[in-house]
């Protein structure tokens, strides 16, 4: 009796899918696929096709979920209010940033060859932090000087293992080869008894650049001391004098120096465990497959108006959609037959991601600092019923 009921159910299911598939094909022949603004793919509008409508609903839900997940995983209450003009003003025209843009693949699909996922499948992991120079506290200034430079670091970064720390300073162009003496002074609050200047680094540089030069200074040791004793971090003063006494270091934070401000580049290390993957079906937007399947979905951040994300501007997110009827399940078929006969005993399986991979992202946070990090669980690699 149980098998007979399942056979009747299966017959009605197949018939409804055939009718749905035929209607969807006729609609597709009359109408070209439409590209949405924030996502790329076909837009199924056939009200007479339940599977097509469910696929469209799954795509829309996935897109909204991505927006909220990114803000949540980056621990942002809302998207930073940074326009494209502000990005162009703050973005350093410097080698390390260009190296990140050129050498790193921001697409999560590049991790598909791995057989594992990270254990922390929610919060973003930071790999590179670029902290821009800020104005110094008035307590270290004499008659308003020096204006530069203070670097602010979050508690999370201060408790992370720092692999590398570089201070980047832009030196103005010279017409002839010159020997430049670059020095870095640690600032302290001004008192009547002591000096506020403590020399911590000194470099001799032979400069011959007529177009300007980015100079990097190893700052790991100083930064480690700051992280151990943050109360000593009042900022630094940077000078680079040529033989004529001209200061070639660009430390002005005012107009005319956009993209040339000093900044700190940090490489940090975070370890995570991994878990194994599952297998699943892959489909395209024209597929007639009704079972749980992975479909392509491309997200466009510029269409969101999210100019605070520097890279990637677009990425392949994918989404899951389809039916999870018990007859489609391969494990324990006798259990599925019993559940089919008594549906009240179980809510039934859902088509959900069974494997997800991260994307690398370069972005501005709400403090206008440039962060390069990894956001886990942003690309659907496999879908399944669970």
Helices and strands in order:
Layout: H1 2-30, E1 39-40, H2 50-73, H3 84-90, H4 95-103, E2 116-118, E3 125-132, E4 134-135, E5 148-150, H5 155-158, E6 161-171, E7 178-187, E8 197-207, E9 213-218, H6 220-228, E10 236-241, E11 263-269, E12 274-276, E13 293-295, E14 298-300, H7 301-304, E15 309-311, E16 314-316, E17 319-321, H8 333-341, E18 351-364, E19 370-385
Antiparallel strand pairs: 1-14, 2-12, 3-11, 3-19, 4-5, 6-9, 6-11, 7-8, 7-10, 13-17, 14-16, 15-18, 18-19
Helix pairs in contact: 1-8
Description:
This protein is of the alpha+beta class and about 375 residues long. Helix content is about 25%, strand content about 30%. The chain has eight helices and 19 strands. The strands form six sheets. Strands 9-6-11-3-19-18-15 form a seven-stranded antiparallel sheet, sandwiched between helices. It has a three-stranded antiparallel sheet with strand order 1-14-16. Helix 1 crosses helix 8. The chain is elongated, with a radius of gyration of 28 Å. The model is unreliable at about 1-45, about 105-120, about 275-280 and about 325-345 (pLDDT under 50).
Short key terms for the protein model shown above:
3-stranded antiparallel beta sheet; 7-stranded antiparallel beta sheet; disordered N terminus; alpha+beta; Cystine Knot Cytokines, subunit B; elongated; 30% strand; 2 domains; 386 residues
Shape estimate? elongated
Which structural class matches the secondary elements?
alpha+beta
By CATH's scheme, which homologous superfamily of the largest domain applies?
Answer: Cystine-knot cytokines
The largest sheet is:
7 strands, antiparallel
